[in-house]
Amino acid sequence: MCHFSRIAEEVQKENVDPFDALIEMKSLEREFKKAMAVVKGAALEQSQHYGKQFTHAGFYFERRDGRAIYNFDHIPAIQNVKNELRFLQEQSKAALRNQVVDEDGVIIAPPKVSYADDVLIVRR
Prior knowledge:
2 domains; two-stranded antiparallel ribbon; 3 helices; single chain
């Protein structure tokens, strides 16, 4: 059983305070992410010597080139459409509280609302 599973098990058995466990897990998560970035970078660099696809220790690896990312924010027509969308979204949000009618007499429909899971923020 790994260290993470032992912590979770001890919390479930109520042998460890869940806040203390969360603090420890957050610290471990930060360390893990830093170490993973180093390891991924080294593995990606080493993969340059093996071609696009290869196996190692029974695992299949595939190196893919980074994807193209398009940014249209500098195009005035797109900015205008985005601004119009933001305006319509704000009108629709306002329709949750009161009936909203646009300049043409059309009733603005309120948005469908869903809620994300509750979260517990941990900071030092």
